[in-house]
Amino acid sequence: MSDGMKITFLGTSSAPPQVDRRQSSVAIKYRGHNLIVDLGEAAQVQMLKHKISFKNLTILFTHLHSDHTLGLIGLLATRGFYNIKKPVTIIGPQWTKTFVFLQLLAFRFDPDFEIKVIETDGGVVLANSDFVVESFKVNHSEESLGYKIVTQKPLGVFNVDKAKELAIPRGKLWKELQEGNPIEIEGKTIYPSEVLDKSPTKQIKVVITGDTTLDHNVINNSAEADLLIHDATYPPSEVERSKKYKHSTCLDAAFVAKKANVKKLVLTHISELHKNLEDSLRAAQEIFPNSVMAEDGLEIELSSREN
Ligand SMILES: [Zn+2]
Ligand SMILES: [Zn+2]
Q1: Which CATH number is 245's domain given?
Q2: What mean pLDDT is reported for the chain?
Q3: How far is the C-alpha of 197 from the C-alpha of 194, rounded, in Å?
């Protein structure tokens, strides 16, 4: 599926790692871009295992708690070891610049590649011809963000025959129309809709919450998402604890998915308080049927083709 998006769960545990769950990290591949949301302790090993590029990557931190960031310095050091010169972009909440600077200082690491750090407290943080990434505030014990990744919808497929029929000379004018701009030939305006056929591809929307308790801002930002990746630290019984530590139960996650009318929900940031994962999943599915329990190595592919 060359046009689609591939999401790989590199780490799905809540703060303490478990024998078969590493700390939080999710890799998102789309058209040659690699976005990594959070880098738990074992992230770089998991990236090697799942063939995620060290060269070409953008790192998004939901927040700076160690279970989401311990893997950063190791990953940067490995890039240095392999003499990778390509710049790396790190996006995160307030203090991310200080955090990265202090890590480099503490580990006496002076990389040969540029590290660009962008701090955000909401809004568009990255936009290119393939997708737009927006951050939004979530409700956790630390300044924390969720991320919304929406692919760009191509305007349409350029119809060469129609362009020839309208006697539009090949070259600059074709490009203008392909980019959605009207052109003029001998005083006559030609609009893009006259030469663009409906695109067979659709937008993909993925939302990843990071750590959060049940929050309306998450519901608003997740509206109609193809995939919602939501904190589900606790089983249904741990409501008190979820409020105290500002995490979610699997039922909170399912409630958000249902309210936001998403297509699919992945429950992640799983703690050992889930005594029986099947029971937790079943309880979530009673609220939102298309719920899945994350596990390390889980891969989800989202097609960009219209059905
Ligand atoms: Zn966490
Ligand atoms: Zn946290």
Answers
A1: 3.60.15.10
A2: 94
A3: 8
